[in-house]
Amino acid sequence: MNVVLMVSEGQTEALGVGEEYLAKQSLGWVVTQYKMAIDRMPKVGEKVTVATRATSYNRYFAFREFWLTDATGKECVHVDSIWVVMDRNTRKMISIPEDVIAPFDAEVVKMIPRLGRPMRLAADEQLMEKQYRVRYFDIDQNGHVNNAHYFDWLLDALPMSFLSRHRLVALNIRFENEVQYHNDVISQAALVTDNQEPIITKHRIKMPDGEVATEAECHWQPVAKQI
Amino acid sequence: MNVVLMVSEGQTEALGVGEEYLAKQSLGWVVTQYKMAIDRMPKVGEKVTVATRATSYNRYFAFREFWLTDATGKECVHVDSIWVVMDRNTRKMISIPEDVIAPFDAEVVKMIPRLGRPMRLAADEQLMEKQYRVRYFDIDQNGHVNNAHYFDWLLDALPMSFLSRHRLVALNIRFENEVQYHNDVISQAALVTDNQEPIITKHRIKMPDGEVATEAECHWQPVAKQI
């Protein structure tokens, strides 16, 4: 995810509307949802290509795709994502300014593709949970938690016996509220079913006040024991 | 550190004595100490070269160097390290087998360079401390905690106000005892002095039973506030 995000940062900068350009207007792109399909993970030492496209947008939402291909051109991972522009002063979403989006040549649409809502944990569900404290190196230069760390929290809530025997094949994650430095967060997870494929786990990251920071749904396939 | 370690793994494999070769004999290389000098950290997007050399060894210890250079050939980071060979069955250090070390053409020496012991936290010292639990994604395929995570634990014990105003220029870290999955570790730190340069912090990672896993000493230089 870090590499994937660097590719879109590279594109916004190459088009002259990078982080610095937005920061001058006290604006920033914020991701609200990722939906990933993982055909296979790249191997250590493998050369892969990460590409991105600002596919379409409407007044408030921009739809961006990423894909990771191997040396033969075969797609290994595909990521759909939804982004909004935030006013850094009010911390509120604003309509996407024309100058910020125009250089991407994205299609103007009425509705951007819906990525679907992750399945939700029910109130009476049997939960696995672990607590995490945001660390200094989890935050980026704007003081926000790097998205990649949410994945660690989400997945680490599952037991080792599960993680070592399953391979993540799909992930749908929706960011609701921002986590801040030194917050304690609780990562909760529940297994929906393990007698049919794909195996599904539901996830939630909660803030100290009980507010939901993130919801996610993961799909898994069993693998031979790896660890 | 992840990239640096991949370079030495690449070398051991290229010489036919990689992890797989050692694993067949139930052996493994284990690092006991790193001493890093950081002239400057690479920038985002910068192309750097990481090189390594198995410099010298004696019966029990191998001395390996790493250096990271920029496009002009200038060295940005230099790492000295000391390694031993462990028998995976007994978890004990053994004398370095000839077949494992010969391909590196390293110099046989009586004494490998001493990297010095990190300054030690005193019993009565005013400590900053934070607790961490080893996460699933902290461990490698052998079930060991990836070295890079020790650095996170060590440095995150310092307050944000310090970390955001200082730049790490040197680090001496000694690994004493292995941390296992799901251990709780306590990362302790103390400021030696902040009225002279370099500013020095002393660090210790303790296991649940009080045993010391790691000791480290960090040198810092003040920088303009970054965050």
From TrEMBL, chains A, B:
Q: Which residues form the Acyl-ACP thioesterase N-terminal hotdog domain?
A: 1-104
Which residue intervals define the domain Acyl-ACP thioesterase-like C-terminal in the entry? 123-221
* Alphabetically ordered keywords of this record: Fatty acid biosynthesis, Fatty acid metabolism, Hydrolase, Lipid biosynthesis, Lipid metabolism, Transit peptide
Return the InterPro entries for the record.
Acyl-ACP_TE_C, Acyl-ACP_thioesterase_NHD, FATA/B, HotDog_dom_sf
Q: Which GO terms describe its molecular function?
A: acyl carrier activity; fatty acyl-[ACP] hydrolase activity
Q: Which family does it belong to?
A: Belongs to the acyl-ACP thioesterase family.
Q: What is this protein called?
A: Acyl-ACP thioesterase
